[in-house]
Structures are given as structure tokens and as C-alpha cells.
Amino acid sequence: MSATAGQAQDERSLAERLGFKPGQVVQEIGYDDDSDAELRESIVEVTGNELVDEDYTDDVVDVVLLWWREDDGDLFDELADAAPPLADGGCIWLLTPKAGREGHVEPSDIGEAAVTAGLSQTRTVSAARDWSGTRMARSSGGGSKR
Q1: Cα distances (Å, whole numbers) of residue 92 to 3, 39, 74, 104, 113
Q2: Domains identified in the chain and CATH numbers
Q3: Which of 58, 79, 97, 131 would give a disulfide with 117, using CB separation of 3.0 to 4.6 Å?
Q4: Strands 86-97, 119-128: parallel, antiparallel or unpaired by DSSP?
Q5: Half-sphere exposure for 82 (CA within 13 Å, toward CB)
Q6: pLDDT (tens digit, 9 = 90+) per residue, 53-100?
Q7: What is the pTM of this model?
Q8: Which residues pair with 132 in a beta bridge?
Q9: d(Cα 121, Cα 73) in Å, to the nearest integer?
Q10: Which residues pair with 93 in a beta bridge?
Q11: Which helix (H) or strand (E) holds 25?
């Protein structure tokens, strides 16, 4: 097995550990040149589907993959906009640069935006070399809009 094939296998395992499953529709928002290509490819490999963009309106989505950096605007607004197309039981994976990297978002800012948008954080992981991932799902109690 080549080093590249071994790396792809490791990344695929990460996508599976993040909970991605075959057949899921994953909507990607906030993609840019700094987004992690290996993670994106591993998600496509595990789900068997290409990632759909923010203009996707064909149906509900199982997962929203949201790349977010400190200067991208209002996180609450983006989370509130990302949640409606989610299928029942769906989740948002918020990907933010790790601490010490350009564009890092403070965990307290993530927590506040999630609660305000009616979401609860269920897990935080190292999602890729430069990215942290925070899994969010709809809160049963809902949230308040400011």
C-alpha cells in the first residue's frame, strides 16, 4: 500500500468516526481554498455522494458541513440559515480553524451562537490537521432569536 493510499484510508476512517454514513446527502457551506481537501474527499468516499452546495434545494440534507472562520460574519445567522434543510436526526458539523491558526473561533462564541440558533453541541473533535469540528443538532427546547 502506498503512503497516499494509507493516508486516504486514515481519512476515510476519520469521516466514519465523525458519523458519516453511506447514502447521506451532505451540504457544504463556506468552502474556500483553506478547506481540508482530504477530509472532503473522505466524506465523499464514505457517503458515495458528491457534496452539494448552499444552493441545493432538491430535498432535505442529512448533514451540513459548515467551514467557518472568525471573520466570516455572524455565526448565529449562518447556523440559523443552515438548520432548516436538515432531515430529522440530521446534524451540522461546524468546522473552525484550530487554536493558534488564522481565523480561529473561540469555543465560547460557538456555544453562544449554537444556543441562540436553537442548536445543542453534541461533540467536539479534531476533524482535520488544521480544523476542529463541533457537531450540532437541533435542541429539543428550541432557541431564542435576538
Answers
A1: 31, 15, 16, 18, 13
A2: 3-138 (3.40.50.150)
A3: 79
A4: unpaired
A5: 33
A6: 999 988 899 999 999 999 999 999 999 999 999 999 999 999 999 999
A7: 0.86
A8: 96, 126
A9: 20
A10: 65, 135
A11: none
DSSP per-residue codes, 102-137: TT---HHHHHHHHHHTTEEEEEEEEEETTEEEEEEE
C-alpha cell at 1: 500500500
Cβ-defined contacts of 13-18 (< 8 Å, 24+):
14/39, 14/42, 14/127, 14/128, 15/39, 15/42, 15/43, 15/45, 15/46, 16/46, 17/125, 18/93, 18/125, 18/127, 18/133, 18/135
The tens digit of pLDDT for each residue in 14-43 reads 798 899 999 999 999 999 999 999 999 999
- In the numeric block, which cell numbers belong to residue 109? 462564541
